[in-house]
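Slides due. Your pick:
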Amino acid sequence: MRQSAREIERFDVQQGAYETIEFQSSEETPRMLIADDDPSIVRLLADHCARMGFDVDTASNGIQAALKAGRVKPDILVIDVNMPEVDGLSVCAHLLGPDRAPVNVIVITGSRDPDTLERCESFGAHYARKGPNFWNDFEAALAEIHPRMAGRISQSCTDAPAPAVRRRPRVLLIDDDNDINRLLTNRLEKCGLDVEYASDVQQGFRMACKDEPAVIVTDYFMPNGNARYLLTRLRTTAATAKIPVIVVSGRQLNEATVQDLRRDICGHRGAMQILRKSRDTYALFETLKKICGFEREYPASRTIDLD
């Protein structure tokens, strides 16, 4: 396999100085790992980059990206900044450590934060901002990494829509008690989230397929199907297979049911967390904060009647 190389400068924190790093780029079917928690963006990038000639793998969060990068050794890592569990820049810091093999990185984000750009430069990473000029930046980065593919890269991206900036994470609530849905919606919107709610499993599944929320919060007991049924539908459907699900229940679930909800389905994670319905929704909001990354403080009154 032919190799090309480019040299960049990366700041070495321990030495307190910049060091020159040579990045190797394979010219035959280079491997690419795309990591973003927005399924629509992952599909858009994966489809497009596959047409360019890249061997594409994907990840939906920071931990998965770090694990897959260690296993498949991608030539290029395309990674979002704001993701659940571990952010993209932390993954970059881990993968681009002085004791690790160099990898070409393209950071994608909707943020204009100058600190983010500065950190990207310190890693020697390329930067492409989601929005109208995204494909120009993305093409330029790929062409610099793989100059022999420049013509194919530019031709592939001509008519592609640019990844949109999702300004507010979306939460889907599924509960047959619409009073609970409305009360939680009011609280979540104050935290800067977009919220939709469904009153049964069938409606919730259809909305999840159409809107691809960042996370689903569902009651366990509902008239036309429980949370396990919903999880099975979600995990066996490509568009919803990776959406995190939080299950809440007004009744104490036995250990067998809890383990069943947590069990993987078709290789995808079951319930991310299982919570008991309570007047105090702090645990629920803390979990949503980790997934959605909102920075607003928890509402002053953190109790709500969920009975």
User: Anything to note?
Assistant: The chain has eleven helices and twelve strands. The first strand starts at residue 3 and ends at 12. The mean pLDDT is 80.
